[in-house]
Design brief:
single chain, 130 residues, alpha+beta, 3-stranded antiparallel β-sheet, 2 helices
Length: 130
């Protein structure tokens, strides 16, 4: 039963980091940078299986494209001589979809931990009443 709790807890941890990365992406979607610099880089969570522990772990957080998209905004204080600035190339609708998936996965893993804990406590109570 403890393996079940460990597996679900590792899954919850991966989904939490995924939610953090997506939240960062959404929060920085409108960050402006000069064309001489690089745009905010979208973050991607890469998870790997831990066969010895029957769980998962975040193996790395990859960064997306730093070139972003160049937009003509001559009134922006960061605009270059031609009036262009750099924005991250992040799609809000995709990020919202990722956020929903990560949230549901996190909730499902926490529900497994809660149910396993309740079952373990019930088993302990059976031992006390015997």
């Amino acid at each position: 039963m403890f393996n079940l709790i460990d597996t679900a807890a590792s899954g919850a941890s991966v989904h939490r980091k995924w939610m953090d990365a997506v939240s960062d992406n959404i929060a920085n979607i409108n960050n402006v940078a000069p064309t001489s610099g690089s745009a905010f880089q979208e973050r991607f969570v890469v998870a790997k299986e831990l066969p010895s522990h029957n769980g998962t772990v975040v193996s790395e957080i990859q960064s997306g494209d730093k070139t972003g998209r160049v937009v003509f905004e001559p009134t922006n204080p960061l605009a270059d001589a031609k009036g262009y600035v750099r924005y991250p190339d992040i799609d809000l609708s995709s990020q919202m979809g990722y956020l929903i998936m990560a949230q549901r996965g996190y909730q499902a893993n926490l529900a497994v931990v809660e149910r396993a804990t309740t079952a373990y406590q019930a088993a302990l109570q059976l031992g006390k009443n015997a």
